[in-house]
Design brief:
Layout lengths: L1 E10 L11 E9 L5 E8 L2 H11 L4 H12 L4 E2 L4 E3 L1 H6 L3 E2 L11
Antiparallel strand pairs: 1-2, 1-4, 1-5, 2-3, 3-6
Length: about 110
Amino acid sequence: MNMSSIFVTPVSDCSPTPRRANIVRVAIVRSFKNGESTVSGRPFKSFADLRKELIRTNLLDSRDLSDLEQNVSKDLSWLSPNAVAITDEQVKQMKLQPVGCAAPTPTSH
């Protein structure tokens, strides 16, 4: 089990008229004891789909899930305020794939 940060971003298309995000992307930054970190993620068709997965895999407590939902409803990105213990099995259950970019830097709150 590794301590991880969860980063969620609503993604909108580039149309000139403002509209709600049509995709929600999740990235999980996993930190290992040797100092290395990895980023895994995937898009979801809607926040409802992501929410179901987060509940099914038991990754967030109800307070963090509520906070996440408020941010996404305003088309704002969200970073978990606390490190979350995530197992390899939970990553597999969510069907997360490695992301080939630098990990977002968690900030302390």
